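Input sequence (333 aa), recorded before submission:
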Amino acid sequence: NVTKLPDFDDTVNIWVYEEIVEGKKLTDIINTQHENVKYLPGHILPDNVVAISDAAKVVKDATHIVVVIPHQFIQHLLDTVHGSIHPDARAISLIKGIGISDQGMTTMTQIIHRTLAIPVASLSGANIANEIAEEKYCETTIGCGEPDEAIVWRSLFNTPYFRVNCVGDVIGVEFCGALKNIVAVGAGFIDGLGLGNNTKAAIVRIGFLEMRRLAMHISGAQIQESTFMESCGIADVITTCYGGRNRRLAEEFVKTGKSMPQLEKELLNGQKLQGYLTAGEVHSYISSRGVTDHFPLFTNIYQICYEGKPPRSIFDGLNIDFSNDTRTPTPVL
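Predicted structure, token format:
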């Protein structure tokens, strides 16, 4: 879109972790063949996308920065670029993860803002990458607390096939993007067990309600309940539980008995899983608060991934009432 917007430079610099693919640098392949042959093969990138292996060089003089990286690597990247950020820069996070520990919770936008001292928005939705690259119609959600800046971000991302809706709920958009990956792991277990669509739908429903319950418990009135009805919420839960790598590897976990890290290494060609990592982080938080019984599905998924419980134990304790869920009076981040 930048080529159509007069206030933006036509060139889009992207940071690419340098790898050797078939004897060539990945950055050189992208810049000459205009294709990311390792992570998005078969899709031609626009000529104005330039791959650079130096992250600090990428962000230098940029006023709008898009941050997309597996959440376990975010702090190292931010420390690398910290001294090169333009004073008037803005960022938007597409990262699907939340830093949760027994000490509390930190969102990716909070980590970026804390490190770089710039405003940060969030984007998440039912957005499987190869389908977007094929220009198949989909929606996404941008969470931005500044209405004028939300308009700018929408102008950068919105296309006839990639429809953007903006909300003011930055944290809510992030929560949905991270927690849905745990639900996708549960859905993959059901697929691996061969239990069918009715059972899978039950796990998706319960998982969605546990997402909502956890978000309300942690962030109180900061999160808008309507956010869960956006693309970042229910739509992303649906698409992730029926497609996507977290579901696929959870299915293979059941069928093969291999660990998640082993399957990640064997099947993802260098990409990273988020669902089982987030399940561990969430469990650390809810167990430290003594509320694991309020999140039986999340607890079961954690125990299957990390403690060797059988996949069929996913159904233990799922007879739970969500009808009286309320927001906490104040956030307990």
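Checked by second reader. The chain is about 45% helix and 15% strand.
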